Amino acid sequence: MQDMGRDYRIIGFLCNWCSYGGADAAGVARFSQPTDLRIIRVPCSGRVDPMFVAKALLSGADGVLVSGCHPRDCHYSEGNFYARRRLEMLRRFLPIMGVNEGRFEYIWVSASEGSRWRDMVTSFTEKIHALGPMPRMAEPVRTMCQLSGMLGQSLAQPDMGAEPLSDRQVQTVLSGEPRLPDWSKPPRVEPRADALLSASDIAGLADKEENGHGR
C-alpha cells in the first residue's frame, strides 16, 4: 500500500562529477523533490562496492539508489562500466537475500540534467513507498558474508566490456559447483628430452611402485 505521508530511509550514492551536480542543479532550480533521500557523495559510481548497497539494505534502509555519469562520459573514463557490471550482478542476487529487487536502482544523470534527476528520484521514491518499509532480516551478518562470497566468485575477473553473466553462469555460482581440476586421475607427465631416465624406465618404476616393489 502506498504511503506518501511519511519519510522512508533511502540511501543515494552519487557520483561527484555528474549526478551530484545534477542533484545540485535541481536544488538551484527549486524543483520539488521528495525528502526521503540521504545522499552519500562518492568520487565515481565505480567506487560503489556492491556490499555498500547490501549493507545499507540489510541494516534497515528502505531503498538504495546509485547514480553516475552516462556511459562513455565518465570522468575516469571507465568507472561507470565497472559499476554497471557489479550492480547488475548484485540485482540478480537480491531476491536470494530475501530483498525485493525493486528496492535497488542505478541510473545515469549528468550535471546539467536537474529535471531528469528530479523525475528519477521521484519515481524511485514512489516505488519505495509502494513497497513499504524494509522488513528486518533475521541474520543480516550471515547473509552479507554469503553474498560477499558469491559476488567474489562472480566478479573475480571483471571485464568492463562484458555483458552480465548468463542465468546458467549465475546458477553455477549459486550451486557451488567446483571449478578445480579433476584430481581423481593423476596428471600425465612427459619426460624432458635431457632426462636421465627414459619414458620406459619411468613406466617401469611406476609399475613397481603400484605393486609394492619400489619400497
From TrEMBL:
**Stretches the record annotates as Disordered:** 173-215
Entry annotated with the keyword Membrane: no
Q: Which UniProt keywords apply?
A: Iron, Iron-sulfur, Metal-binding, Oxidoreductase
Write the protein's name: Coenzyme F420-reducing hydrogenase, delta subunit
Q: Which domain of life is it from?
A: Bacteria
Per the UniProt record, the source organism is: Humidesulfovibrio mexicanus
Does the record's keyword annotation contain Transcription regulation? no
Domain spans labelled F420-non-reducing hydrogenase iron-sulfur subunit D? 10-132
Question: Bias category Basic and acidic residues: which stretches?
Answer: 179-193, 206-215
Q: Which GO terms describe its molecular function?
A: iron-sulfur cluster binding; metal ion binding; oxidoreductase activity
